[in-house]
Amino acid sequence: MKDFAIPKIQKQLRKVSTVQAALEAETPSLAVINKKFGEDFTQAYIEGWIVHLREFLNIGRKMTDEQTQETAMLILDEYYNISIADINIIFKRAKLGRWGQIYDRLDGQLILSWFDEYFQERCKASQEKSILEADKYKGDPYQRFSTQAKNKEQAAKVGAFIEHFKDKK
User: Fold this and answer.
1) pTM, to two decimals
2) What is each CA distance from 169 to 3, 60, 160, in whole angstroms?
3) What is d(CA 25, CA 77) in angstroms, rounded to the nearest whole number?
4) What letter does residue 29 receive in the DSSP assignment?
């Protein structure tokens, strides 16, 4: 499990700083993690990210454990298709102040607003990527086949990433 530790993941993903890079990163989504490890593990993992942020920030009114659990549950329910790379970017932006200054308050609504804003950005980037992909296929059917092979290779890498952590559990 220590391979799944947040500081280790942050180090592995420190160069992944844009939505486009997160879309190309070969990290599993919350849905995939949930399927492989179960809901309790996945929710606890999200809670770990929130606790890590709580410890990073020097604010007076920190979230309680109950608030952290509920926020993690809502993230899992509403944003199950985001990946570990996406989560890393969201919390990194928070630490850098990109979501705005945090004035002595960290709560579920604030964190969920970051996820919502990021998710909208991610949807737009995914749409643009999809349109570009579709344009490539208009002229060359071989390109479609080679991209499908690449997607299968990426899926295998994500599966290997998950299996690595599953074995450590």
Assistant:
1) 0.78
2) 10, 35, 14
3) 22
4) B
